[in-house]
Amino acid sequence: MSDAKPTVLVQLDTDPRPSVFDGVVAVDAGVDHLFRHGGITPANVRDLVYGALFTRGPADLHRTALFVGGSDVSEAEAVLEAIKQTFFGPFKVSVLLDANGSNTTAAAAALAALTSMGGSLDGAEALVLPATGPVGQRVARLLGRLGASVMVGSRDLNRARSLADHLQKTTGGRYEALASTDANQLESALSKASVVVSAGPEGTTMLPAGLWQGRENLRVVIDLNAVPPLGVEGVEPADRDAERHGARVWGALGVGGLKMKIHKQAIKELFVSNGKILDAEEVLELGRALV
Fold first, then answer.
1. Does domain 105-256 have CATH number 3.30.1490.190?
2. What is the pTM of this model?
3. Cβ atoms < 10 Å from Cβ of 156
4. For 30-44, what is each residue's pLDDT tens digit?
5. Is the previous residue joined to 229 through a cis bond, with omega within 30 degrees of 0?
6. The 3-state secondary structure of the chain, one letter per residue
7. Is 8-97's fold the same as 105-256's?
8. Which of 86, 131, 214, 264 qualifies as a cystine partner to 29, CB 3.0-4.6 A?
9. pLDDT tens for residues 57-102?
10. Residue ranges per domain, the chain?
């Protein structure tokens, strides 16, 4: 009989009710025990973390882990920072941040682009519409990490500029801002983009068929919206590296299959050691081994 303690995942959700989706994925990933807490804030998370730290000795803390979720990504990021401040010495556990599925979805989208581009994004021109939402920000961030020059679009040009400046400073990548509602700016971006990712809200068409179909420069189109009307007109939700109108295309369900694999693998990775913080870049690296 094994002396290994069972795995325990503590789900810390900023919403009043913890996400059922994230709970089911944790169970399917093989977690032995799942403790779920809602209404988590930076001010109230400390004692919950202490409960995870002080019930097991340092040698067994790799069998306990935290998952930070919720629909508001900025709130979840603040909770993660508060958690990291709670750790000291050997008293720490691994943590996965995936609020609103932003990190696992962004990693899957970036890897889909990488796959369809033949394994390299070095020198590629990428366009993310819009890039200022929780998933779009991370898609832009990861595409830049993979070597692409990224055009970040938003209805608000000032928001796009602020994001482009922030990403350029934090990643060292190349970012350019554009107003997605300006027809001339959008046309200019599409005329040079080889990769386009639509990461807009559900039921909103970001890219009509006439704007992208038949462009010789455009090699990859990814739509992360599965709710009609779709984000990219002419891309089907189940498309997975399919050929349409001269481009390789991915729909939300096609990307979603890879996202689920990454999500489950990230949960498993939490129990390898007690010192991992899995944010966007770490999740991306886990996903690369699955493609």
1. no
2. 0.94
3. 14
4. 999 999 999 999 999
5. yes
6. CCCCCCCEEEEEECCCCCCHHHHHHHHHCCCCEEEEECCCCCCCCHHHHHHHHCCCCHHHHHHEEEEEECCCHHHHHHHHHHHHHHCECCECCEEEECHHHHHHHHHHHHHHHHHHCCCCCCCCEEEEECCCCHHHHHHHHHHHHCCCEEEEEECCHHHHHHHHHHHHHHHCCEEEEEECCCHHHHHHHHHHCCEEEECCCCCCCCECHHHHCCCCCCCEEEECCCCCCCCECCCCCCCEEEEECCEEEECHHHHHHHHHHHHHHHHHHCCCCCCCEECHHHHHHHHHCCC
7. yes
8. 264
9. 999 999 999 999 999 999 999 999 999 999 999 999 999 999 999 9
10. 8-97, 105-256
d(CA 71, CA 93): 23
User: Token pair of 211, please?
Assistant: 């704007």
Token couple for 39: 């209404």
